[in-house]
Amino acid sequence: MIIKSLKINNLQLIKSAEVDFDKINIISGLNKDNPSESGNGSGKSTLVLRAILFCLYGYVEEGLKLVDLIRFGEKECSVECTCVQNNEQFRIIRKIPSELQVFLNDKEIQANTATIKQKFIDEQFGDYDFFKKFRMI
Questions:
Q1: pTM of the full predicted structure?
Q2: Which of 12, 81, 94, 116 would bridge 111 by S-S if both were Cys, CB 3.0 to 4.6 A apart?
Q3: For 96-131, how does the pLDDT look when each residue is reduced to its tens digit (9 = 90+)?
Q4: What is the side-by-side order of every strand in the sheet holding 14-20?
């Protein structure tokens, strides 16, 4: 799987971001609240690790709840991930409050429940444990 882009709205520190990945990317950060400090708290982990794992798997770090991912003062958040595998394009959109949409080559995968859609994602890319073992982020 090659992740092509991420679109993030109201996820933790990030109000709105669109990131296009092309080949190798380096993500650095500057803490705007205190520029003399390091890049800690600038949103690098949220942008990549948390956003991707939430979008693909609905994963939230231990000790957090889904509602903790929503930016302070907002009522909802969303992450959209576009990726390519075996010459097919997948677009996955996950939102809080709970909503999951999956598109294969711009055609929405129809399923009765988010659980069935999640099973489709797992079949395409491997489940969360597989992703964590064999993907480099």
A1: 0.82
A2: 116
A3: 998 999 999 999 999 999 999 999 999 999 898 888
A4: 14-20, 2-11, 77-85, 88-96, 99-104, 107-108
pLDDT tens sequence across 62-75: 788 888 899 999 99
Please tell me the distance from the alpha carbon of residue 123 to that of residue 15, in angstroms, as a whole number: 31
> Please, what's the b/e burial string for 103-117 (b: 16 or more CB within 10 A of its CB; e: otherwise)?
eeeeeeeeeeeeeeb
